[in-house]
Amino acid sequence: TQEECELVKKLIAHDADQDSLGYFATRRDKSVIFSQNKKAGIAYRVQSGVMLASGDPFGEFSLWPEAIDAFLEEAREHAWTPAVMGASDRGGEVWVERAEMLAVDIGDEALINVKDFTLEGRTMGNVRHMINRIGRKGYEAKTSRWHELDETTKTELRMLAKKWRYGVPERGFSMSMDRFGEDSDGDAFITITRYEGQIKGLLYFVPWSSHSLSLDRMQRERGVESGVNELMIVTAVNYAKEHGYKYVSLNFAAFRSLFERADKISAGPV
Questions:
Q1: Fewer CB near the last or first residue (10 Å), C or N of the chain?
Q2: What percent of the chain has pLDDT over 90?
Q3: Rounded CA separation 199/214 (Å)
Q4: What DSSP string runs through the chain?
Q5: What's the confidence (pLDDT) of residue 16?
Q6: Cα–Cα distance between 246 and 144 in angstroms, integer?
Q7: In the predicted model, what is the mean pLDDT of residues 157-186?
Q8: Is pLDDT of 270 > 50?
Q9: What is the pLDDT of residues 210-254, one digit of tens each?
């Protein structure tokens, strides 16, 4: 319900240790099971007989075991198979210990430490070159909160976000939202790239606790210059630095280690 959604938002906003996927628990296609006092909970969805939890529990850490017990009891009652997708190291440890689950590494999170970020040095030379090149061509990027945009821009962005799917369905569970640009998510962050006044790309971040940003979507118009994504990411990180945020999560590179190992022996994915 909307009331439960607002409660989840409140709990994750005041948890400094919440993982970067916490806000995605507010997807409307999920159900929530709470601890008895509703100060902790687990978001989940039932898919093909599997009760699939969305990453870490949220809320008060000391109540996570109680929420997991309630989750497992619900699964037993309906004969569902309990599972978790997208847990952090900390959350994974609690799930493994409490629910006796088997943990499988699915990939790495690209996490930028805002304080230490710089474009200086040899390792960032290529990024620096791309950003300078498209800057000279006239591309500009700006980051703001969603609620700071005017209604005309909001309407245009909603239309473009749908258009730039290019017929591909929305997918995601633990690591993406099921909505974009709603006023109920007014504290989301958006980075917009423009060329000659026209919107050419966007990054959309949801709040990660009260101290960081977590990437939900990265979209751009087909045919734009290479370097637009780099420009938007650097713009977002600079915004975060100016406003005192700690981290910018660029979400996950799924199965990176698997593909790296396979590449060593010239093997493709199964």
A1: C
A2: 69
A3: 22
A4: -HHHHHHHHHHHHT-TT--TTGGGGG-TT-EEEE-TTSSEEEEEEEETTEEEEESS-EE-GGGHHHHHHHHHHHHHHHTPEEEEES--HHHHHHHHHHH-PPP---EEEEEEEGGG--S-SGGGHHHHHHHHHHHHTTEEEEEEEGGGS-HHHHHHHHHHHHHTTTTPPP--SSSS-S--S-GGGTT-EEEEEEETTEEEEEEEEEEETTTEEEEEEEEE-TTPPTTHHHHHHHHHHHHHHHTT--EEEEEEEETHHHHHHHHHTT----
A5: 79
A6: 17
A7: 85
A8: no
A9: 899 999 999 999 989 889 999 999 999 999 999 999 999 988 766
pLDDT of 105 > 90? The answer is no
Q: Which residues are within 8 A (CB) of 149 and not within 5 positions of it... i.e. 6 or more apart?
A: 157, 190
Q: What is the pLDDT of residue 15?
A: 80
Report the alpha-carbon distance of residue 28 to residue 15 in Å, rounded. Answer: 21
Report which of residues 86 and 143 the model is more confident about: 143
Phi, psi of 178 (to 5 degrees): -100, 15
* Residues in Cβ contact with 2 at an 8 Å cutoff, skipping those fewer than 6 apart: none
